[in-house]
Amino acid sequence: MVANVLARSRPDVQVLVAGEGEERAGLERLVRELGIARNMRLLGYRTDVPDLLQAFDVAVCSSDFEGSPLAVMEYMDAGLPIVATAVGGIPDLIEDGVHGLLVPPRDPTALAGAVSALLDDRERGRALGARARERRRTELDIDTLVRRLEALYCELLERRAGLGPETGDGRGR
Predict the structure, then answer these.
(1) Are residues 125 and 70 part of one domain?
(2) Residue 129 to residue 59: CA distance in whole angstroms
(3) Number of domains present in the structure of the chain
(4) Residue 52 within a domain
(5) I want to staple 83 with a disulfide (CB 3.0 to 4.6 A). Which of 37, 52, 114, 118 is the partner?
(6) Is 66 buried (19+), middle (13-18) or exposed (0-12) by CB count in 10 A?
(7) Do 28 and 95 have their domain in common?
(8) Are residues 43 and 72 in the same domain?
(9) Max intra-chain CA distance, the chain
(10) CA distances from 44 to 18, 21, 37, 47, 99 (A)
């Protein structure tokens, strides 16, 4: 567990986990077993995530698999330095070393090392967070995504229409 690795090297670190689910009891048990209760806060279900994000020094997404996680886009919007696992759609959102730091999945030492690096170099973290925010607002906002999807549909329709003369029926079949 990354919190355990971080707590050994940075006893002052506070790891906040927001969310609720069936794994909570097991996570509470693990926190007790590892003796890191003073470093770990399980916040449960929250409706004030934007307010919580303002308190973060580094945002982390340690998933084993993901699509395009909303949490990462919220971190980007907040301009936070991000450490995330390089799985699923995350590398499409974050370019390693440009918008955040990517680490292999299931590697708590690498994850803790990346978090520590950003805690030690706040200026680098601010720069990563600023570039992530800019990317989110210019490339990943809803209007831009809708325009791209519309352009893709138009392109596909034009290609399909271009196939029509082969069959003579204009339907490209």
Answers:
(1) yes
(2) 10
(3) 3
(4) no
(5) 114
(6) middle
(7) no
(8) no
(9) 74
(10) 5, 8, 15, 10, 28
Which pair of structure tokens corresponds to residue 85? 């696992």
Q: Is this prediction's pTM over 0.85? A: no
92, exposed or middle or buried, with CB in 10 Å at 0-12, 13-18, 19+?
exposed
Domain identity same for 61 and 129: yes
Q: Could you tell me the CATH number of the domain that includes residue 69?
A: 3.40.50.2000
Rounded Cα distance between 83 and 86, Å, is 9
Q: Where are the beta strands (DSSP E) in 5-120?
A: 15-18, 40-44, 59-61, 82-85, 101-103
Q: Write out the residue range of the structural domain in which residue 20 sits.
A: 1-47
pLDDT tens series, the chain, 173 aa: 899 999 999 999 999 999 999 999 999 999 999 999 999 999 999 999 999 999 999 999 999 999 889 999 999 999 999 999 999 999 999 999 999 999 999 999 999 999 999 999 999 999 999 999 999 999 888 888 788 889 999 999 999 888 644 444 555 44
Length of the chain: 173
For residue 119, being part of any structural domain is answered with: yes
Rounded distance between C-alpha atoms, residue 86 and residue 40, angstroms: 24
